[in-house]
């Protein structure tokens, strides 16, 4: 039996295109998940894999919907193979029923991981460059600099809790915590 798996990263994203493709391919059962692929803890994926029986085929739209790293991919592949099932991607030529197919799957997984690493490196380099030019990241302070300084000084006396300082200045405890951390950890950038 063909068992489908569709995943999108956030609640705002739509997996309709994946679902249509999986149904057109003949999937009798489809597991849907809304979770970041960067997280290894994807309960619906593991539930899907646990449901596989000998002769079943796990079908997904694209490799990056199932695995985000080569080690992740290899672990998933091992669990699928232990169940006696195989893997099929609708957009990549993957057939894990042969040694060549498993090799192709591993090469594609390594290339996907490499591409994500390059994107991450470029993003970090861009952020460093922007910081060097004076760009401030994150939300602007909800209080002026004088109030921020007073909040930190009040907390650092040790006489008040985060919540107490927050109530006194009319801000949330997370604002107090962020301001204190920013002042006490000079390398921290908000």
From TrEMBL:
<dbReference type="InterPro" id="IPR006119">
    <property type="entry name" value="Resolv_N"/>
</dbReference>
<feature type="active site" description="O-(5'-phospho-DNA)-serine intermediate">
    <location>
        <position position="9"/>
    </location>
</feature>
<dbReference type="GO" id="GO:0003677">
    <property type="term" value="F:DNA binding"/>
</dbReference>
<dbReference type="GO" id="GO:0015074">
    <property type="term" value="P:DNA integration"/>
</dbReference>
<dbReference type="InterPro" id="IPR050639">
    <property type="entry name" value="SSR_resolvase"/>
</dbReference>
<keyword id="KW-0229">DNA integration</keyword>
<keyword id="KW-0233">DNA recombination</keyword>
<keyword id="KW-0230">DNA invertase</keyword>
<comment type="similarity">
    <text>Belongs to the site-specific recombinase resolvase family.</text>
</comment>
<feature type="domain" description="Resolvase/invertase-type recombinase catalytic">
    <location>
        <begin position="1"/>
        <end position="134"/>
    </location>
</feature>
<keyword id="KW-0238">DNA-binding</keyword>
<dbReference type="InterPro" id="IPR006118">
    <property type="entry name" value="Recombinase_CS"/>
</dbReference>
<dbReference type="InterPro" id="IPR036162">
    <property type="entry name" value="Resolvase-like_N_sf"/>
</dbReference>
<protein>
    <submittedName>
        <fullName>Recombinase family protein</fullName>
    </submittedName>
</protein>
<dbReference type="GO" id="GO:0000150">
    <property type="term" value="F:DNA strand exchange activity"/>
</dbReference>
<dbReference type="Pfam" id="PF00239">
    <property type="entry name" value="Resolvase"/>
</dbReference>
């Amino acid at each position: 039996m063909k068992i489908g798996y569709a995943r999108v990263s956030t609640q705002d994203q739509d997996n309709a295109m994946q679902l249509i493709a999986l149904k057109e391919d003949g999937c009798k059962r489809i597991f849907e998940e809304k979770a970041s692929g960067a997280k290894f803890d994807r309960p619906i994926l593991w539930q899907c894999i646990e449901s596989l029986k000998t002769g079943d085929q796990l079908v997904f739209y694209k490799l990056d919907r199932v695995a985000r790293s080569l080690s992740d991919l290899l672990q998933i592949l091992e669990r699928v193979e232990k169940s006696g099932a195989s893997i099929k991607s609708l957009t990549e030529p993957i057939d894990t029923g042969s040694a060549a197919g498993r090799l192709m799957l591993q090469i594609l997984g390594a290339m996907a991981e490499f591409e994500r690493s390059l994107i991450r490196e470029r993003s970090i380099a861009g952020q460093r460059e922007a910081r060097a030019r004076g760009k401030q990241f994150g939300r602007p302070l909800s209080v002026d600099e004088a109030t921020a300084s007073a909040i930190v000084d009040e907390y650092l006396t040790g006489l008040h809790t985060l919540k107490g300082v927050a109530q006194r200045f009319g801000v949330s405890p997370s604002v107090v915590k962020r301001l204190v951390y920013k002042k006490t950890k000079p390398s921290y950038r908000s």
